[in-house]
Amino acid sequence: MSELNSSKLNTLSCEACRADAPQVSHQELLELSKEIPDWVSVSRNGVLQLERSFTFKNFRDALAFTNRVGEMAEEQGHHPDLHTTWGKVTVTWWSHSIKGLHKNDFICAAKTDALQ
């Protein structure tokens, strides 16, 4: 995992994720999760995902953050689930093509943290 050394996660770029790309191993999940400590891994319908909620003082700030995440996602070619409400944005990353977590999800989670 040396190429995914955490302090540099937000400087990496996503790679194209094919349907046969490997999901992160349990050991990689533990290792990479240390680099994004505010994110939790959740399983929905058997699919492991990374999720974090961000709080803001109002809807305008929450929406602005949502838009920043959207712009970054477009640049990376990797797109999260975004749920925006008054003063709160919940961001969920996972790789649809492999129905689980890929290193791209950790890279994008770190990039999301940098946008806050």
What does this structure look like?
The chain starts with 25 loop residues before the first helix and ends with a helix. By secondary structure, it is of the alpha+beta class. Helix 2 packs antiparallel against helix 3. The N terminus is likely disordered. The radius of gyration is 14 Å and the shape is globular. A 4-stranded antiparallel sheet has the order 1-2-4-3, covered by helices on one side. A hairpin with a 2-residue loop joins strand 3 and strand 4. The chain is built from 3 helices and 4 strands, in the order αββαββα. It has one domain: Gyrase A, domain 2 (2-Layer Sandwich), CATH 3.30.1360. The longest helix is centred in the middle third of the chain and has 18 residues.
**Average of pLDDT:** 92
Rg from Cα: 14 Å
CATH topology: Gyrase A, domain 2
Number of domains: 1
Tell me the total number of β-strands: 4
Order of helices and strands: HEEHEEH
**What percent of residues are in strands?**
15-25%
Largest sheet: 4 strands, antiparallel
Structural class: alpha+beta
Terminal CA distance: 26 Å
Shape: globular
Provide the CATH superfamily. Transcriptional coactivator/pterin dehydratase
Percent in helix: 25-40%
Low-confidence region ranges: 1-6
Question: In short, what is this structure?
Answer:
This protein is an alpha+beta fold. The chain has helices spanning 26-33, 59-76, 103-115; strands at residues 40-44, 47-55, 81-85, 88-93.
Key structural traits:
single chain; 116 residues; alpha+beta; Gyrase A, domain 2; four-stranded antiparallel β-sheet
